[in-house]
């Protein structure tokens, strides 16, 4: 939970106003411009150093990552070089794939790499796509393994059998194949943004491979340019659904249900400035009839059972005349459901947004230990959203477990403070913080509130921010003795990074040396752990954005490293040189450059990040 509070605070503080040039008010405009150019030169020097040192890395996946991240950051200033770096990354991805295949072939472990998700390829290609989607598709195909090419070709055949077609018959390789197709379609959406003809071709190509709900974003893009053509292609989709035996194609059935969910999504139905794609009423009716027909066929399949339960509400809205038959089928299927499935459904209800905290409390004593822990987690989340104080306090009093009762109280107070601060009642929020029992939450809230005061910018508010950070400082241990105290220390660094960078560096600098030692010690320990996900062949495995869940502290505190780089690029650059290992030094330099250049977010990346549709299933 401590890590959660640190990350939540980082989200809050990221709205603070950083200045690129890191100048002071007494400098002339020409001096500021010169300093700005010097800083920009320094950040690209960091990138140059990372690219240069990448040649010394042993793992091709690591070299690929460095080239890919550098290409992303160089794009605006040197597109030609960025394209070269992206191609270099692709070349190393190919080498990495070949080595992985050899390792798999040579391994005696029959499960080697079976459940390995994600790769450097998945990290880098989206970086390429936000700049040039066509190039991303080209590199996607170029770096696709021969086995994957063959598998996709087989899966697209009309006679191909569904693999992994059940919740207890999961096929990791089939999952990867579907994700590969989804990734290509995701890039295609960007590529087709301004080209209706390309969107039409992509939709037809997709339909030739089967039913896929990933055509929805393409239809949406096309609809902006040619509403009639989008509707015509939707008719082709409906025809394909009607011509397919959905009892044998679980993914196709899932796609058909998704189309119905999309049609009844409030965002789809309400009027907006943007012309949105809509299925016609007759198209919706045809899809619903086909789905209902599939569910009503004789079957004891778990997938059919679960699918019907998840979609019966929407089917009843579209086909009220079949409501009785659908309910009878549901009752019949429910009788044959294994007990574990029924329990799973009960657990899922705990996280349903419509389930009230009162309903969870009513059932909590009937759950086993594992289920109760999940229920408590959901309960704390829901109580935190309750803005009716008497109701919240009554709920908290009813919690039978004293530990969770205390946590629920802290969660409610924490959320109440956040709401009060958002309403601009900063002084009132300040007075409420002392009521929180958990010191780490107090630290997080004080630092977050200090950021809110600091953003207001008046002398009085800045003074208040400084004083709040003094309160934070009084609560932390600058020589942390455990993980919790270290997280508290990093919360303080986060706050000071904008309010008093000098103090932030004073606190962080001793920890930077410990980070260096920690990475080295972790590398030694990894030699005796074949299952290590942090090191491979003695080298740190790099990731585009690190991974905050990892036990390796270097990755967990990337946000602090980046905030300090914004506050004082020169000093943070100097600190990066203290890392003795090449892999760690490259990682820190890349993180600093990423953070510094992240102020102006690329619009295409926003589209990639905020795309309404989910592509991976």
| Derived structural class | mainly alpha
Q: What's the story with the biggest beta sheet?
A: 2 strands, antiparallel
Strand content: under 5%
Which segments are poorly predicted (pLDDT under 50) over 5 or more consecutive residues? 1-21, 600-617
Outline type: globular
The proportion of residues forming helix, as a percent range, comes to over 70%
DSSP helical segment count: 31
Average pLDDT score? 81
Q: Rg to the nearest angstrom?
A: 27 Å
Q: Quote the distance from N terminus to C terminus.
A: 28 Å
Number of strands: 2
**Biggest sheet: strand arrangement:** 1-2
Features:
single chain, 617 residues, mainly alpha, two-stranded antiparallel sheet, 31 helices, 70% helix, 1% strand, globular, disordered N terminus
Explain what you see.
It is a single chain. The chain has 617 residues and is mostly helical. It contains 31 helices and 2 strands. It has helices spanning 2-13, 29-54, 60-74, 79-106, 120-129, 133-142, 146-155, 172-191, 196-208, 215-225, 227-242, 250-263, 266-269, 281-296, 302-318, 323-335, 339-351, 357-363, 369-384, 389-397, 402-422, 426-433, 439-456, 459-475, 483-499, 501-526, 553-556, 558-567, 569-576, 582-596, 603-610, and strands at 535-536, 539-540. The protein has a two-stranded antiparallel ribbon with strand order 1-2. Helix 25 (483-499) packs antiparallel against helix 26 (501-526). The longest helix is centred in the first third of the chain and has 28 residues, at 79-106. It is globular, with a radius of gyration of 27 Å. The protein starts with a helix and ends in a 7-residue tail after the last helix. 36% of the residues are buried.
């Amino acid at each position: 939970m401590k890590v959660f509070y640190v990350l939540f605070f980082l989200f809050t503080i990221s709205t603070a106003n950083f200045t690129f040039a890191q100048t002071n008010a007494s400098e002339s405009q020409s001096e500021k411009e010169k300093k700005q150019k010097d800083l920009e030169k320094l950040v690209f020097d960091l990138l140059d150093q990372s690219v240069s040192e990448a040649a010394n890395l042993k793992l091709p996946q690591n070299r690929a990552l460095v080239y890919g991240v550098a290409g992303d950051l160089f794009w605006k200033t040197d597109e030609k070089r960025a394209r070269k770096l992206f191609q270099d990354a692709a070349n190393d991805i190919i080498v990495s794939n070949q080595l992985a295949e050899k390792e798999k072939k040579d391994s005696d472990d029959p499960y080697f790499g079976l459940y390995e998700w994600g790769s450097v390829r998945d990290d880098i290609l989206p970086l390429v796509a936000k700049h040039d989607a066509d190039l991303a598709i080209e590199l996607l195909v170029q770096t696709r393994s021969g086995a994957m090419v063959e598998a996709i070709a087989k899966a697209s055949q009309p006679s191909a059998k569904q693999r992994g077609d059940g919740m207890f018959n999961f096929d990791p390789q089939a999952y990867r194949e579907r994700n590969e197709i989804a990734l290509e379609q995701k890039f295609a959406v960007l590529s087709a943004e301004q080209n209706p003809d390309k969107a039409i071709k992509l939709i037809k190509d997709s339909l030739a491979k089967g039913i896929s709900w990933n055509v929805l974003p393409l239809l949406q893009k096309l609809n902006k340019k040619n509403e009639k053509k989008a509707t015509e292609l939707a008719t082709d989709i409906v025809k394909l659904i009607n011509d397919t035996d959905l009892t044998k194609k679980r993914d196709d059935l899932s796609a058909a249900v998704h189309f119905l969910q999309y049609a009844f999504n409030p965002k789809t139905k309400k009027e907006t400035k943007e012309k949105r794609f809509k299925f016609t009423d007759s198209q919706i009716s045809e899809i619903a009839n086909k789905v209902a027909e599939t569910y009503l066929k004789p079957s004891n399949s778990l997938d059919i059972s679960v699918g019907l339960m998840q979609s019966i509400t929407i089917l009843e809205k579209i086909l009220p005349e079949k409501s009785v038959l659908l309910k009878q089928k549901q009752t019949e299927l429910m009788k044959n459901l294994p007990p574990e499935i029924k329990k799973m459904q009960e657990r899922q209800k705990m996280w349903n947004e419509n389930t009230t905290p009162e309903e969870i409390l009513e059932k909590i004593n009937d759950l086993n230990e594992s289920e109760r822990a999940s229920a408590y987690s959901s309960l704390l989340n829901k109580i935190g959203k309750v803005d009716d104080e008497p109701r919240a306090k009554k709920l908290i009093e009813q919690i039978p477990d004293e530990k969770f009762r205390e946590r629920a109280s802290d969660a409610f107070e924490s959320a109440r403070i956040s709401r009060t601060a958002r309403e601009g009642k900063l002084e009132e929020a300040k007075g409420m913080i002392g009521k929180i029992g958990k010191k780490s939450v107090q630290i997080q809230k004080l630092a977050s509130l200090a950021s809110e005061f600091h953003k207001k910018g008046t002398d009085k508010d800045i003074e208040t921010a400084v004083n709040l950070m003094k309160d934070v400082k009084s609560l932390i241990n600058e020589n942390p003795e455990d993980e919790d105290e270290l997280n508290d220390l990093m919360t303080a660094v986060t706050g000071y990074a904008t309010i008093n960078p000098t103090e932030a560096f004073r606190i962080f600098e001793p920890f930077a040396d410990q980070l260096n030692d920690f990475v080295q010690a972790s590398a030694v320990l990894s030699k005796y752990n074949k299952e290590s996900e942090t090191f491979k062949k003695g080298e740190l495995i790099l990731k585009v954005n690190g991974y905050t869940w990892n036990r390796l502290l270097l990755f967990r505190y990337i946000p602090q490293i980046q905030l300090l780089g914004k506050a004082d690029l020169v000093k943070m650059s100097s600190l990066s040189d203290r890392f003795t290992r090449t892999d760690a030094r490259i990682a820190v330099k890349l993180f600093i450059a990423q953070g510094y250049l992240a102020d102006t977010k690329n619009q295409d990346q926003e589209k990639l990040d905020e795309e309404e549709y989910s592509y991976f299933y």
